[in-house]
Amino acid sequence: MRVIIVKDYQEMSKRAAKIVANRMKRKPDLVLGLATGSTPLGMYSEFIRMHKEEGLDFSQVRSFNLDEYCGLSSDHPQSYHYFMYDKLFNHINIRPENIYIPRGDVENAHIFCEWYEKKIKKEGGMDLQILGIGRDGHIGFNEPGSSLGSRTRIKTLTKETIEDNARFFKKKEEVPRYAITMGLGTISEAKECLLLASGTNKAEAIQKSIEGPVSAEITASLLQLHPRVMIIADEEAAQNLRQKDYYQYAEKMAEKLEVNQES
Ligand code: GLP
Asked: What DSSP character marks residue 125?
């Protein structure tokens, strides 16, 4: 696990975008796992800038989003469908047929979840999975208690998550109580994971995820078992890390090595 500590949100976003762009240059038909929430917004803006100013090419990229609220149609302004098109897809040259987002408005969600899993496999699995983190340590919508081997399915959201996400809705009552999310088993099959975290409200979750025991209570802690994980946290999100100094030192030392994993 690489823990990269950066100054602030802007630096986190730029660093993350650069890493993803490098992967895309190496493999133009990269299968990207994408996340929503406010954390990846800066990285998405940077993708758009890189596409417009530097010709970053998404034409062969395939993308799978982590999750979607149940009960919201894809044109609902608070749906993750809407978010992804509004914040990223409408501004880059990704092909619509290469975009996959769980659907929250299907008649039979179970059949849909099975289809989504099969589709991920058919496309070869995620090369790089982008992740944010919830205040309760969740990734995707894998709330505490999620099976570490879980697959795409419906999850009931915790009160904490509903409160956190209420800021995007007019009233808290409007926040859906269920979501479809890739499972922890699904996420761990990605070849590489990149988790982003910014702000003091993520500090506890980040410390527990990186330095606490692997447990279904903090589902991001599962990443400790993954062979290829990068976590980019800003100073605020990293403030509780006990081994902070070591992570910073290790990053400096890694720069000196001939093989820089990032390039
Ligand atoms: C939601 C999403 C997660 C995201 C989390 C944190 O629960 N399902 O994928 O990581 O929110 O959101 P934010 O980045 O806005 O703090």
From this structure: -
Neighbours of 75 (CB within 10 A): 10
Decide if 84 contacts 65 (C-beta within 8 A).
yes
Q: Which atom of ligand 1 is nearest to the CA of 141?
A: 8
Helix (H, G, I), strand (E, B) or coil at 19: helix
Residues 195/229, Cβ–Cβ less than 8 Å: yes
User: So what's the pLDDT on residue 263?
Assistant: 43
- Catalytic, out of 46, 117, 127, 138: 138
At 121, is the pLDDT very low, low, confident or very high (cuts 50, 70, 90)?
Answer: very high
Packing angle, helices 41-54 and 80-87, rounded to 10: 40
Lowest average pLDDT, out of 62-66, 92-96, 235-239, 254-258, goes to 254-258
Helix (H) or strand (E) holding 121: helix 109-122
Position in ligand 1 atom list of the atom nearest CA 35: 9
List residues bridging with 100 in a β-sheet: 64
Sign for the CA dihedral angle at 114, 162, 160, 140 comes to positive
Distance CA 125, CA 16 (A): 20
- Determine which residue's CA is closest to atom 6 belonging to ligand 1: 134
235 is catalytic: no
Ligand 1: residue of 72, 142, 164, 201 to mutate (most ligand atoms within 8 A of CB) is 164
Pocket residues for ligand 1 (CB within 6 Å)?
35-39, 66-67, 132-134, 140-141, 161
Angle (CA) 217 222 224, round 5° = 130
> In this predicted structure, what is the pLDDT of residue 255?
84
